[in-house]
Structure formats: C-alpha cells, structure tokens
Amino acid sequence: GLCCPGRDPACLSVGWRPDGSHGPCYCDQACARTLDCCHDYAEACPVIPCVVSQWSVWSGCAEPCKTTYRIRRRHVIREPRNGGEACPPLEERAGCVEYWTQQGTECKQSLIPALITTGGFGKARKKRAAADGKERAGYCVEFQLVAITPGCLQSHHSYTHWMQYLREGHTVCVECQHPALDSRSLHCYGDGSGSKKNQLLHWQAVGNAQCKGTWKRIRQLDTCSCPSVHSFLFI
Q1: What value does the mean pLDDT of the chain take?
Q2: If we measure between CA atoms, which residue out of 139, 141, 118, 137 comes closest to residue 129?
Q3: I want to staple 4 with a disulfide (CB 3.0 to 4.6 A). Which of 28, 120, 147, 160 is the partner?
Q4: TM spans, by residue (predicted)?
C-alpha cells in the first residue's frame, strides 16, 4: 500500500529485497536509484507518465494594433505518478500582429511596412497627376536608416541601382504623392504616422524582395530637402 513520491526514508516496509534477502525495504521513488526497493515495487507502484491533451487552436492576438502574441493551450489528462515523466508546458505563445481593430477599422500606420522606390519616379507622377487634375497636396517624411539587409547591395539590375545608396545611419527623405496618398486617411501606407519616438519601423524596397530594413521616423515636412540619391517615394 506504500507508493511515496520523491525521496522519503519514512516510506519503509519489511519484505523481500531484489537481492533475495528479507528485511527493511523502501517504496519511495528514490529506491530505484538506491537499489533498496521492495521486490514488488515495480508492480505495486508502476511508473505512470503525464498525459496531456492536444493543443487548442491558436487564439487571436492579445491586443490589436500592436506587435504582441497569441496563445494556445492544452490540459493535463493524467498526472504523472511514481517517477513518471513530468508534464510538458501547457501553454505556448507565438508572435502576432493584428492590423485591424475589433471594430473592423484599420490600425495605425506605424504597423504597416513602407514600400519604397527611387525618387526618380516622382517627376513623372507629378506630371501625370497634374494632367488629369487630380493632384493632391503631398508631404515628405524624414527617416534615419537603422538596419539594411545585405540584399540591397547584391542586385545588379539597372532598376535596383538606387538601393546601393542606402546606408545605415543616413537620413533619407520619402515623399508621399498621389496615387500612393490615400484619399481617406490623407497618408501613405507605412509612413509611420502615430508611431512613438524612436520606434523601429519597417521598410521594403520595391523591385528586390531581399532589400529591406528598419528606420526611425524623424519628422514630417511639406517638401523634401534630401539629396536625390537619398530621396525616395512611398508606393
């Protein structure tokens, strides 16, 4: 009737030992290591491992409009006994970003990665917008480049040469012009509006999926003042 967890010197009985002698023997979990179990310990106190259920489905993001986490859980079906394998973790978390609020409205722009291309396309955009009479007042955002992937230097196509001027620590100007300028929000996606000071924001170069990185928003201006090689456009 004895089956004691852990090491318990009081979990003592008298009976036959595994070596065939008769006398004091133990029925705690430690007896298997100290080799002084009673002869029927394995049958009377079998090792029973923990049994858990399957994982639940993943939950939604813990909070909308933030880089946060989602959760899945499982529960214990049978507790371990007599030195059986312990239960594994019952909860797992994974990174999660939700771009829509619970009311179905879009989150702040700071969460959306910016798609950028060379500012050389800007003049053509302005001419086209002026021709159809739909030009809206744009603006410029200054960013400080924090991190750049090596892929920006590894592409040799003529339309990706502008990416080679991207340098960590440099300040760049990104123009928000029609048609990238959203008519409802009056912002370009990924412009970092609503972001906190020194918050790392993500950007992606159009034309080379391996060229991307992070930057910090400095300020918004009516017009850009960066050199042409450091001037870009929101897409």
Answers
A1: 82
A2: 137
A3: 28
A4: none
